[in-house]
Design goal:
Layout (H helix, E strand, L loop, with lengths): L1 H12 L7 E4 L2 H8 L12 H11 L4 E4 L8 H4 L4 H11 L13
Parallel strand pairs: 1-2
């Protein structure tokens, strides 16, 4: 799904010459995406994974390894412990904002 969305964004950003990179924390997935040869253990891979491989092979996507500790997408996709959540939101640049609204909802 991320590969499909990245290609869609790549088409929009093509005029700005900004390359699309997927930050993946799974080295096996990266190897399978870069290696066009199918292995006996990868026959079960779904068509959407093969779509990502095609995009990588034709240069539409770049795949970059990202350590699990720095995988910012985890904020949106996983339940995290408080300390890891706080670390990741600080890496994104999110800050708590104090408001002076009284009464509130």
């Amino acid at each position: 799904m991320a590969a499909c969305q990245a290609v869609w964004l790549e088409n929009i950003l093509k005029e700005m010459e900004i390359p699309i990179a997927l930050f993946i924390d799974n080295k096996s997935s990266i190897s399978l995406a870069r290696n066009p040869a199918l292995h006996g253990r990868s026959k079960h891979i779904e068509a959407k994974f093969h779509f990502m491989r095609e995009q990588v092979n034709k240069g539409a996507l770049q795949i970059v390894h990202c350590s699990t500790e720095l995988q910012l997408a985890d904020i949106f996709t996983k339940v995290l412990k408080v300390d890891r959540f706080i670390k990741l939101i600080s890496l994104v640049g999110m800050k708590e904002v104090e408001t002076s609204i009284k009464g509130g909802c």
